[in-house]
Specification:
Elements (H helix, E strand, L loop, with lengths): L6 E4 L2 E4 L5 E5 L8 H12 L5 E6 L2 H4 L20 H8 L3 H13 L3 E6 L2 H9 L5 E3 L7 H8 L5 E4 L5 H13 L5 E6 L14 H9 L3 E5 L5 H8 L4 E5 L17 H18 L19 E4 L14 E4 L10 H4 L12 E2 L10
Parallel strand pairs: 3-4, 3-10, 4-5, 6-7, 7-8, 8-9, 9-10
Antiparallel strand pairs: 1-2, 11-12, 11-13
Length: 355
C-alpha cells in the first residue's frame, strides 16, 4: 500500500516528505532592540541556506496586560524575575520595522512570514503580503485567532508545544472551519531550552497519521542532533531560533544557533533526507567500482587437464573475478577442462559441463 504524502505549499515551495526539509530561521527577539541588528540577521540567515525567515508580530499590549501582580511575574527559567509586560516590551519586533525587514528578505529572494498574536497583527501582516502565518505554541489554544488567520486563505503552520492530543485536534478543526487548506503542524516542546529526551520524536509519524497533515519540528534543544534525527522520523520542516551571537544577551540568544551552526543544520537536514531515500536493494552507483573486491573462488594449485578439483585446490579470496563462493560444493569433485595455473579465477568454462 502506498503511503499518502501530505503536503502544503508556501510561496511556490512544496513542503512534503518528497522534498528536502523546509528549514525556518526564527529571528525571535534576538535583534536586541536594534533594527540594524535585525537587518544583519536577515543577511546572515539568507546565507545559511534556510528556506524561510520568521518574525513575531506583537506588542506588549497585544500579548499581555501591564501588571505587577504575582500572576504576571515570571518565576524560574531564563526570564526569572521579569514581568510578562516588561519581557515582551523588550523582546517585541517593532511593527514599523516590518516593512524594512520584509524588503531586506525579498532582496535576498527569501520567504518571510510571521507569528501574529492577535487579529490586528494578522491584518497588518496581510497588508505586507506575508505568504503564510505561524501560530505559536502558546496561542494554539486561541481558537478564535486560528479561525481568523485561516480566513485569510494563507497557508498556516501551528506549533503544538504544551498542547495535548485533544487540543491539537481542536486547533486543526478550527483551522479547517476557518477555511485553511494548507496546514502544517510542528511537533514542539515549549522548554527554553528543551532537553532532547522530552521530544519523543516518534510522535511525528503518529501526528501525521492522526491529523492528516504534514508534520515538522520546532526545536528548542541546544544543538542540531534532535532536528536532524526528526527528518528520519518523517519531519518535513525544521524551525530553529537564530542569533548572531549566543552570548549577545538577548532574551532568546542562549538557546539559538549562530550562523555557522545554522548553516550546518541546513546541510545536515538535507543530507539526512537524501539518505532516507526509498526501499532499494539494488547495487548503488557508488558501489560499482568495488564489486571486484568481493570474494570469489580461485584455483590455488597448478592443475592438469582432467584433474579433479579437490578442497585444497580452490579458495574463497579477494578479488571477485571468479565464481561466487556459493558454488564451492559444486566445484569440488569436478574435473577441469584444461591445464590451469594457480591464482586463476574459477569459471564455468574451465570445468566439465556436467558440473
Amino acid at each position: 500500500m502506498t503511503k499518502t504524502c501530505h503536503s502544503i505549499k508556501i510561496a511556490d515551495r512544496l513542503i512534503s516528505a518528497d522534498q528536502p526539509p523546509y528549514v525556518i530561521c526564527e529571528l525571535s527577539a534576538n535583534h536586541n532592540g536594534s533594527l540594524d541588528t535585525a537587518l544583519q540577521m536577515i543577511d546572515a540567515a539568507a546565507a545559511t541556506g534556510c528556506d524561510a525567515i520568521k518574525l513575531q508580530t506583537y506588542t506588549a499590549d497585544t500579548i499581555t496586560l501591564k501588571s505587577d501582580d504575582e500572576a504576571f511575574q515570571i518565576t524560574g527559567g531564563l526570564w526569572d524575575g521579569r514581568t510578562l509586560y516588561d519581557l515582551y516590551e523588550e523582546a517585541h519586533t517593532p511593527w514599523d520595522w516590518h516593512k524594512s525587514l520584509f524588503e531586506r528578505a525579498a532582496r535576498h529572494g527569501m520567504t518571510m512570514f510571521s507569528s501574529p498574536f492577535d487579529t490586528t497583527a494578522v491584518d497588518f501582516l496581510v497588508d505586507l503580503n506575508a505568504p503564510a502565518f505561524k501560530i505559536a505554541s502558546f496561542e494554539v489554544i486561541d481558537l478564535p485567532l486560528i479561525r481568523y488567520v485561516a480566513s485569510t486563505g494563507k497557508p498556516m503552520i501551528m506549533s503544538t508545544g504544551m498542547a495535548d492530543e485533544e487540543e491539537i485536534g481542536e486547533a486543526v478543526q478550527a483551522a479547517r472551519d476557518g477555511g485553511c487548506q494548507d496546514l502544517l503542524l510542528l511537533h514542539c516542546v515549549s522548554g527554553y531550552p528543551a532537553p532532547a529526551e522530552d521530544y519523543n520524536l516518534r510522535t511525528i509519524a503518529d501526528m501525521e497519521a492522526r491529523f492528516g497533515v504534514p508534520v515538522g519540528l520546532s526545536d528548542h534543544t541546544l544543538d542540531n542532533t534532535t532536528a536532524v534525527a526528526s527528518i528520519a522520523l518523517g519531519a518535513v520542516a525544521i524551525e530553529k531560533h537564530f542569533t548572531l551571537d549566543r552570548n549577545g544577551g538577548g532574551p532568546d540568544d542562549s538557546f539559538s544557533l549562530e550562523p555557522a551552526e545554522f548553516t550546518q543544520l541546513c546541510k545536515s537536514a538535507k543530507t539526512a533526507w537524501q539518505a532516507i531515500g526509498q526501499v532499494d536493494y539494488g547495487r548503488k552507483s557508488s558501489e560499482q567500482g568495488n564489486i571486484k573486491f568481493r570474494r570469489s573462488l580461485y584455483f590455488v594449485k597448478d592443475m592438469k587437464a582432467d584433474d579433479i578439483v579437490t578442497a585444497d585446490a580452490v579458495r574463497s579470496v579477494r578479488p571477485g573475478y571468479g565464481l561466487p563462493p556459493k558454488y564451492t560444493d559444486k566445484i569440488i569433485g569436478a574435473r577441469v577442462t584444461q591445464a590451469i595455473r594457480r591464482n586463476t579465477p574459477v569459471s564455468w568454462d574451465l570445468l566439465k559441463s556436467d558440473v
